[in-house]
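INTERNAL AUDIT FORM
Audit reference: QA-55
Scope: verify that the stored structure record matches its stored sequence.
Auditor: D.O.
Record contents follow.
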Amino acid sequence: MSDSLMIDADATRWAPGDRDGLPLLVMLHGYGSDENDLFGLVPFLPDGIAVASVAAPLTPPWPSPGRSWYPIEGMESRHPDAVTAAARALLHWLDAAASDAPKIALLGFSQGAAVSLQAMRLDAARFGAIVALSGYATPGDLPDDEELRTSQPRVFWGRGTHDDVIPQVLIDHTAQWLPDHSELTGRVYPGLTHSVSEDELQDVRVFLEKWRDGSAN
């Protein structure tokens, strides 16, 4: 899998208003969606932050709509190298589009959550918080994983009891991996499918308010 993926900066949606000097939250959509999908969450997010919603660099095979961060050939196929390539593309986009942001957090759904956590593993010092919704941590080792055991970046991981999209083996792996490599806020929402609920968004808002008001990252 090549690391030459590129995010289309012109497709990025920015929340309106002056963003100079504000903490930046970057949103990463799921498979088959696009930069417009998570933009509907902006009213549920804290005030006093800039928000960008980026478009994934790949197009799913026809006739699937939208875009994707990495290929999924069958629900059991999610190659770690492909997730890493997508995370590197995100880091390159941040270098170009957000080099002046005082601090940065990521909010990803499904595939976007996996890429967000992978970006944290590639450059943990860049991010003050990760919100991973209905996603997972990619199996396999990366060079900075051991450092995460010490730095313990802040992660919110939310998922539903009725989410049958993410394979159970990946849920089990994430449930073991995240507490060992992050300061984890974990929430499981009864009856929730592969989606986001109002209760979850309230929890996310509180989590992001703490990141916004904190002194680091």
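Auditor finding: record pair retrieved intact. Strands lie at 13-14, 24-28, 50-54, 104-109, 127-133, 154-160, 183-189.
Action required: none
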